[in-house]
Amino acid sequence: MNRAFNRKKDKSWMHTPEALAKHYIPYNAKFLGNTEVEAPKGTEVVKDAVRKLKFQRHIKKSEGQKTPKVELQISIYGVKILDPKTKDVQHNCQLHRISFCADDKTDKRIFTFICKDSESNKHLCYVFDSEKCAEEITLTIGQAFDLAYKKFLESGGKDVETRKQIGSLQKRIQELETENSELKKQLQELEEQLMIANVPPVGSISMKPQSTDIFDMVPFSPVTPLVPTQASNGCPPPPPTTLPPDIRKDLFGAEPFDPFTCGSADFPPDIQSKLDEMQEGFKMGLTLEGTVFSLDPLDSRC
User: How far, in Å, CA of 98 to CA of 113, rounded?
Assistant: First the structure.
């Protein structure tokens, strides 16, 4: 994986894969807020964001506002930020959108991560006070990212190019089916015009005998309906053969191929854009760092 774990390389992960894949790891923290940043990575980037949000929090504290408490739920599906009482989800940060995560090496409380917003595509820096669990939370996010990337590869991430080709084929098949429908419509219109041309005007009686071939047989016409006649022995004619229901066919008379209903290759029509987005995020990788955020007297407590 193209991650850049700049420290703690010798530390093993803290949780079992099953805990992050089938469940989630909860943490309680105070949420200082989030703010837009110019870059997806960088120590100085998050330092500036922490300073800004801490300053805003001190102003709100002087006005009597408390720092809101939140619950973090970390799993391979992302980092959810919830109200601890109502469990309402305030933010849902998918792991492939998280590019940088850092904690304070000095007071062990402050940690932050940068996540690309799913709607605005802006990079937002989230800052938390975690009551001396900052390093553990940072490592948990790193482990979840690692597991999510492996799951992405196992579940089809390697087949992105193949799925692109299937998507192109699907589009071409739809174009051929549209063309086929137009040709059928034109053929039906021509047959109707031909039938109208062979019908005599109303009120006129045609005395012209029906032409026959050299065997005194009425020539077959594709527009003449075949009507069962009474057999010479007086027995009723056999019932007409029932054709199977009309099956939608493509230009070559075969059932059109649908890659969205082809067994193990099932995936929704919009999966390509999702796969491209996830591939781009995982390729960028997640950087874990330890730094120092408490640089002035204002940073004593939030």
Answer: 7
Q: Are residue 140 and residue 175 in the same domain, yes or no?
A: no
Return the bridge partners of 201, or none.
none
Close Cβ partners of 79 (under 8 Å, ≥ 6 residues apart): 72, 73, 92, 93, 95, 98, 113, 115, 141, 144
Rounded to two decimals, the pTM is: 0.59
Structural tokens at position 15:
């949780």
**131 within domain boundaries:** yes
In a domain, 2, yes or no: no
pLDDT tens-place string over residues 88-110: 999 999 999 999 999 988 878 99
3-class SS of residue 2: coil
Residues 109 and 187 in one domain: no
Q: What token pair was written down for 219?
A: 């020539």
Segment 134-153, tens digit of pLDDT: 999 999 999 999 999 888 88
In whole angstroms, give the CA distance from residue 283 to residue 21: 21
